[in-house]
Fold each of these.
Amino acid sequence: MEKGKGVMGSRKWAVEFTDNSSTPSTRDIPDPPGFTRVPHDQDDSTLSRQKKDAEANWKSQKAWEVAQAPFKNLMMMGFMMWMAGSTVHLFSIGITFSALWQPLSALQGVGKVFAPYKDSKVDLLAPKLLFIALNLGGMLLGVWKLNALGLLPTHASDWVSSLPPAREVEYSGGGIALH
């Protein structure tokens, strides 16, 4: 045998790349995940409808991901508040006001957050409600921490200065001296 002139049939390892099958169902190798064969006779309107449906499905999934994002922030903020302790000092107050400010600013921008996912085929009501509920939970966590630090006026003694003085019910005067 001459050098470089091997016969294809005599090789031990050889792969034939020609596909002699006429339909995809007769092939031995399955298509990779995510790959779909499109028949040539399929019209453009069906393709555009499928593309719009896939885009609406993607927007819906992304909207749910955005709606669930405050949960991660809620867990992180709770851990930071726990690490800050229950004494009133600069770090614990800063963390507490951050826990109040972040959900408040997120609630003000709900429309902007979900604007990229707005579509006639995508229902954004449930993701928006979840987003609002999780941010309200974050604000409640901040209010709880304010109460734990003793910075909320929740007792009667916190309001004593605004109460009128008590009315005197009983008077006592000088006594009689007995000799």
Note: The radius of gyration is 36 Å.
Amino acid sequence: MSQATLHNSFLATVLEQFELKHPGFKYALFDYYNALRDRTLHPTEHGFKVGNVACCGSGVLNGENCSSTQEHFNLCEDVNEYVYFDGGHHTDRANFQLAQLMWRGPKHVTGPCYNVEMLFNL
């Protein structure tokens, strides 16, 4: 089990306990790890062509040195086809999809009872 999965499980438990102790407390918990992982493993289901290689960089999976100061790096033709821009950043399109999920995502992604839009409208 990954550290992110352990963290999310522990955070969910802590929030549930807090909710029991504080009536009226409402929250949304976004499963960022699995939402991004799903796009990485199944890019075409989310409108991407490439999920595990960055648009810009060098080395394994283009995960290094996306910079004009480096002599050699690859740059894709269409950044919108990729989940990752470089080794440390998602593309704008991937970030937009994740933001939409936080705002209006279903309970299995943003929950357990609310997404951010629902909290906003309380």
Note: Strands lie at 29-30, 56-57, 74-75, 84-86, 89-90, 110-111.
